């Protein structure tokens, strides 16, 4: 890991840049696959499953028999953990239910909002080296609470043609409607355009590799909404002299093992902490099965020494991390100063893993600095807010003249006339 001591503020923007990839060829490949799926539907999806996931599928849909087999395969303890996590995620997201309030903006003018669920949503769950069944809970649970009528899930099968059983159990627990064996770009295309088997959805959620992310961004231009733009996963840890170096190292490595393109950052006011954490990272790394992946991620990562906690917080907010862990004596005080982050973990016991799995908060979060403008997935992600207004004659009297003047000033005479004829009708009744 790269050690940087007392960097000048003028260098911060360069320091916090994420690794850049040349995606020109990638985008062309993605566009070709999406076009093929749009034209040939199931046949194209099955062809790409054979090509990329090395599995020859007769059907894309997961059968009831496969669901029942998954229930038998997953152990009792893991099922209990899934149900506990689901319960906490449900509790947290139920507290976000919107309660609209009618507001009388002027006498006779009443306005309000109604929250309406997106009718059909699509969830993408990566498979590969780490089948993310926890992400099923994070995406499907708020969709169910919001009232989405159909929750469609796509995930790549293994070479045996079966979906990871824990993904299927989590889908059952969280209330997924339909599950399909499709991964990568072809899955995004299937949900964006619809095929003979896979329904077209109105919004797509979920993480994935650079091909999946490029596919989501391309389909979002014309065909379907997406949860957020995203890149590789990342964590920033803030530590003073009271932090536990072994805890900090464990947090950095838990993120680094996500993928070789992940990024971790430590910002500390203690020079000794730099070296203690570096030593702990080396020690803990040796016992990790995903050591090779973590090592590559650490090459893009930094240990940074700053002068004081003001610099610590300013640099963290400049970085705008997906995950922000604050292991300091005054973590509550510093937490109040966070303005750019996806999810914040306060105190030495609040490891990122807690939020990734079972504390209740959502782990689908903005990366790549998008936390400056985007929220993580929450209940509102699955809803639309529709506004209503009701005007009485008194309401026309209250705002009618203002509407006429404003429409006239914008030279939109039809707009002005729509109000003028109503004012005239009311005046006639008075006469």
What do you see in this structure?
The chain is of the alpha/beta class. The protein contains 17 helices and 14 strands. The radius of gyration is 26 Å and the shape is globular. The termini are far apart. The mean pLDDT is 95.
Let me know the largest β-sheet: 6 strands, parallel
Number of helices: 17
Q: What Rg is obtained from the alpha carbons, in whole angstroms?
A: 26 Å
Oligomer: single chain
How many strands? 14
Observed structural traits:
431 residues, alpha/beta, 6-stranded parallel β-sheet, 14 strands, 46% helix, globular
Write the layout of secondary structure elements.
Layout: E1 2-5, H1 12-15, H2 24-40, H3 42-53, H4 64-73, H5 76-94, E2 103-106, E3 109-117, E4 120-124, H6 133-146, E5 150-155, H7 165-174, E6 178-181, H8 184-193, E7 203-205, H9 210-219, E8 225-226, E9 234-239, H10 245-256, E10 263-268, H11 271-285, H12 291-298, E11 302-305, H13 309-319, E12 323-327, H14 331-335, E13 343-346, H15 352-357, E14 383-391, H16 393-409, H17 413-430
Parallel strand pairs: 1-11, 4-5, 4-7, 5-6, 7-8, 9-10, 9-12, 10-11, 12-13
Antiparallel strand pairs: 2-3, 3-14
Concise synopsis of the structure shown:
With 431 residues, the chain is an alpha/beta fold.
């Amino acid at each position: 890991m790269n050690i940087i001591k007392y960097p000048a503020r003028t260098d911060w923007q360069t320091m916090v840049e994420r690794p850049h990839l040349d995606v020109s060829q990638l985008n062309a490949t993605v566009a070709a696959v999406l076009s093929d799926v749009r034209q040939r539907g199931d046949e194209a999806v099955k062809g790409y499953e054979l090509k990329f996931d090395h599995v020859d599928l007769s059907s894309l849909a997961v059968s009831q028999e496969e669901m029942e087999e998954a229930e038998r395969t997953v152990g009792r303890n893991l099922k209990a953990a899934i149900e506990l996590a689901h319960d906490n995620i449900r509790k947290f997201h139920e507290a976000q239910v919107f309660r609209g309030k009618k507001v009388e903006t002027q006498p006779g003018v009443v306005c309000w909002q109604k929250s309406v669920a997106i009718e059909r949503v699509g969830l993408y769950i990566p498979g590969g080296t780490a089948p993310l069944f926890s992400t099923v809970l994070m995406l499907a649970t708020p969709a169910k609470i919001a009232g989405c009528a159909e929750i469609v899930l796509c995930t790549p099968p293994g070479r045996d043609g079966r979906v990871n059983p824990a993904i299927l159990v989590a889908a059952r627990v969280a209330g997924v409607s339909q599950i399909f064996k499709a991964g990568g770009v072809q899955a995004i295309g299937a949900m964006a355009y619809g095929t003979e088997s896979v329904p077209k959805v109105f919004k797509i959620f979920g993480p994935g590799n650079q091909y999946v992310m490029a596919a989501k961004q391309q389909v979002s231009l014309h065909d379907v909404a997406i949860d957020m733009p995203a890149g590789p996963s990342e964590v920033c840890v803030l530590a003073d002299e009271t932090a536990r170096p072994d805890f900090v190292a464990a947090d950095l490595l838990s993120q680094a093992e996500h993928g070789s393109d992940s990024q971790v950052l430590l910002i500390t006011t203690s020079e000794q902490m730099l070296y203690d954490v570096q030593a702990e990272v080396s020690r803990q790394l040796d016992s990790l099965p995903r050591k090779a992946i973590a090592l590559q991620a650490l090459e893009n990562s930094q240990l940074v020494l700053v002068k004081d906690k003001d610099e610590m917080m300013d640099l963290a907010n400049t970085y705008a991390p997906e995950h922000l862990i604050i292991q300091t004596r005054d973590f509550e005080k510093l937490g109040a100063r966070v303005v750019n982050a996806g999810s914040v973990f306060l105190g030495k016991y609040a490891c990122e893993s807690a939020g990734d799995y079972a504390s209740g908060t959502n782990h689908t979060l903005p990366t790549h600095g998008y936390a400056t403008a985007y929220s993580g997935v929450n209940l509102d992600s699955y809803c639309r807010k529709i506004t209503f207004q009701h005007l009485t004659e008194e309401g026309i009297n209250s705002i009618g003249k203002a509407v006429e003047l404003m429409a006239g000033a914008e030279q939109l005479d039809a707009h002005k006339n729509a109000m003028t004829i109503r004012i005239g009708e009311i005046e006639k009744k008075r006469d």
